Amino acid sequence: MPVSYVHRTNANHLLGSLPAVALERMLHHLTLVPIASGETLYQTGRPQPYVYFPIRGAVSLSYLGGATQVEISLVRNEGVIGIPLFLNGVVSPCRAVVRDAGAAYRMSTHRLTEEFNRAGQPLRVFLAYARALTAQMEQTAACNIQGTIDHDWCATCTHANTCPAADP
């Protein structure tokens, strides 16, 4: 495997935090793809054939309730698009649309499921990320619904620069 390929996987913090042996197993199943602004990576309620690990750009996760669409999170190179897959889901309750063009590593959901069935450290890393993203979504929901925000959370929240309630 070329060194530059391995180095770029470290551009995604979640992939970079995996043990070397797990990353080595996954490398052969990761494909570097461009992600274009406005591109829909997955739709609400539809099966997801792939998960995406952004290395550049940003992907907006939005909840659609009736005619209302609310952004609940923004994922950059810290994480993964496709959380429901490793929480035993096959479809997403939200929509993922590229906000800022860039690039991402893509992997089939089938292959990621195989990796999780091994259990161990990779699964724990992904579950820790899921907990952090869920906390961010909860804070975003509180901000959107109640107009209140925990300002200590703003230091780590990816919405801090766009959230109108984040101004002290």
From TrEMBL:
Residue ranges of every copy of the Cyclic nucleotide-binding domain listed in the record: 14-99
Extract the InterPro entries matched here.
cNMP-bd_dom, cNMP-bd_dom_sf, RmlC-like_jellyroll
The organism's place on the tree of life at top rank: Bacteria
PROSITE patterns per record: CNMP_BINDING_3
User: What name has this protein been given in UniProt?
Assistant: Cyclic nucleotide-binding domain-containing protein
Give the organism, scientific name: Massilia eurypsychrophila
